[in-house]
Amino acid sequence: MAHEHKLAIFRGLVKFKSNTQKIWGVLIFLTIVTTIEVAFGIIKPRALTHSYFLGMKLLNWIFIILTLVKAYYIAWDFMHLRDEKTPFRRVIVWTPIFLVCYLIFILLFEADYIYNVYTDGFITWDF
Amino acid sequence: MDSTVSTGTEDSVWGGGNRPLGASYGKMMMWFFLMSDALTFSGFLVAYGFSRFKFIELWPIADEVFTHVPFFHGNFPMYYVAFMTFILIMSSVTMVLAVDAGHKMKQNKVVIYMFLTIIGGAIFVGSQAWEWATFIKGDYGALETNSGRILQFVDAETGERAALADFAATIPDVRQEHVESEGIWYYGDASMPSYSLNEVVEGFKATPNILIRTEYLNEEGEKTLLDRKQSLAKILEANQVVEGANLIHNEYGSRLFADFFFFITGFHGFHVFSGVVINVIIFFNVILGTYERRGHYEMVEKVGLYWHFVDLVWVFVFTFFYLV
Question: Is residue A63 located within the same domain as residue A121?
């Protein structure tokens, strides 16, 4: 069990005095991020829902990036990945990331193809 | 740290108790289990994405589906799910505080924090049950067309959704629910909707200020509203009344949305439930002083990993079901 904790987050920008303090600090950060997400979800600013990047609304990109940020801090600070040895951490993190990226790529492209068949092909499916 | 039982074979590499990469066997296996579990959840979420991209222009808008808060009437999109998310993050915090207290061998603090974690988990599971019940019960009611698409109703004057009860006619009907006492080969009957298709269609024709809303999203990202003439033509395609959602019919829109909602939040809810059960077991072990005698609280750390993982998954479910 690693008794020593790395107490700095945001690449050393914020340093905590104890592990308990760090936990509360991360909670505050996660709460702020969730509040921003919910606020965006309710307001839905027009500037973000009508501009696209790589075929997806900017608002959705913001949601996904904020989600990954939250996931990072949950895994690094709550699950103590920050305190694990680097090779162990890399095995745990990069293996699923690689496989999931592949899965996303292959399935979403296939789904988009099917959408185009439904739209442009000689198929009636809404009657 | 002495996490191993002394067997007298510690000097041998194969004697057990090795800690490759600085992680004990149990902790490492918990991590590998979580990795495979993460891939399972990813598979489900990507399958959801697949179905959504397939029907990208008619997927239900989550803000219009999950609008209720217990004990309050009105339209509160997202508020309750945000509350649930906060509860789960909060219980994650109490869990990590329990792990921290365990490192310092403070038994009483571990007991308190484990207890708070269990309470948080129970509130979350309860909220999810309520969310399911509300989703299954339904809101306004809708019609389903021959091809399985959903037609919803809107009051033209206020622009608000209209419930079937607002305009359906009352027509004495011969259709009765089939009951066991009446049948020899009785397998059961689908429960009758509050209004028959005929009553809804006739009521619609008689009420000029009701319009039909289709599933299609327009350029503003809102559901397409038909005018009265189009609505009168469209309603002829309807073949049944749908109230609420189940695995076969879904008044909110695409039935795949309901299927994935039940499957993914159900699978996650099952994880939360089993997490609570495991937490309760460990909680009693802490009270009984098992880990005090063992000399370390690594067990609390391992269930902690599982509990944080449940929180981690919820962060993604929250994004892909409720936000995006």
Answer: no
CA B133, B38, B17, B92 torsion: positive or negative?
negative
pLDDT in tens, B5-17: 555 555 667 777 7
Under DSSP, the state recorded for A78 is I
Q: Which residues of B touch A76 (CB under 8 A)?
A: none
Number of A/B CB contacts below 8 angstroms equals: 142
Which residue on chain A is closest to B32 by alpha carbon?
A92
pLDDT tens per residue across span B103-122: 999 999 999 999 999 999 99
B contact test, residue of A7, A74, A119 with most B CBs within 10 A: A74
Q: How many helices (H) and strands (E) does chain A have?
A: 4, 4
Same domain, A120 and A76: no
Residue B3 has pLDDT above 60, yes or no: no
Structural domain for A98, as ranges: 85-127
User: What is B239-281 written as a DSSP string?
Assistant: EEEE-SB-SS-BTTS-HHHHHHIIIIIHHHHHHHHHHHHHHHH
Going by C-alpha positions, the residue among B319, B321, B322 that lies closest to residue B48 is: B321
Which of A68, A70, A79, A113 is the best substitution to test chain B (most B C-beta atoms within 10 A)?
A79
- B316–A71: do the CB atoms touch at under 8 Å? yes
The amino acid present at B97, given as its one-letter code, is L
Global ipTM = 0.91
The CA distance from B296 to A84, in Å, is 18
Which of the two residues, B75 and A37, has the higher pLDDT score?
Answer: A37
| Alpha carbon separation from B210 to B152, B231, B234 (Å, rounded) | 10, 9, 13
- Chain A residue numbers with beta carbons less than 8 Å from the beta carbon of B310 are none
Q: Is A63 left (phi over 0), alpha (psi -120 to 50) or beta?
A: alpha
Task: Note whether B151 and B244 are within 8 A (CB).
Answer: no
Mean pLDDT across chain B, nearest whole number? 89
CA torsion B124→B129→B132→B133, rounded to 10°? -140
- Reported as a single tens digit per residue, the pLDDT across A6-59 is 888 887 788 888 889 999 999 999 999 999 998 998 888 888 888 888 878 899
Length of chain A: 127
Region B170-185 average pLDDT: 74
Residues A42 and A5 in one domain: yes
Domain range list for chain B? 23-138+257-323, 142-243
Assign B287 a pLDDT band (cuts: 50, 70, 90).
Answer: very high
Which CATH architecture does the domain made up of B23-138+257-323 adopt?
Up-down Bundle (1.20)
